[in-house]
Amino acid sequence: MAEKTRARTGHAKKAAPSRRPSRQGPEHAARAACQSLEKLIGHHTEGVSSVRRGEDGWHVVVDVLEVPRIPDTTSLLASYEVQLDGDGELLEYSRVRRYRRGAADE
């Protein structure tokens, strides 16, 4: 039995232009928060304590070395809460805590 093939009629689909997704993941948010904060406050970031997605973007807590001392356990660090929009652009930041490196949370 011979197979019948039918040519497609109509308009050819055009490939949609590739777009960057408007929402990035938590890794991107953490990296963007650290980079933006370092540029603004001029202190080295030590790490990220938390990342959570909010309705309007990302809320990231970044730990920063504010006053390096010798020995290192006496250095002063601070935690900054950084708010980013869905694309990772900084909206606002504020210092929420300052502490000695060797100090434990109560």
Structure in words:
The chain has one helix at 26-41; strands at 45-54, 57-67, 76-84, 90-100. It is α+β, with helices and mostly antiparallel strands and 106 residues long. It has a single domain (26-100), classed as Nuclear Transport Factor 2, Chain: A (Roll). Strands 1-2-3-4 form a 4-stranded antiparallel beta sheet, covered by helices on one side. It is elongated. The termini are far apart.
Morphology: elongated
The percent range for strand residues is 35-45%
Radius of gyration: 24 Å
Provide the residue-averaged pLDDT: 84
Please bin the fraction of helical residues.
Answer: 10-25%
User: Please, how many domains?
Assistant: 1
Q: How far do the termini sit from each other?
A: 82 Å
Protein name: Gas vesicle protein
Region (Disordered): 1-31
InterPro entries: Gas-vesicle_GvpO (IPR008634)
Biased composition (Basic residues): 7-22
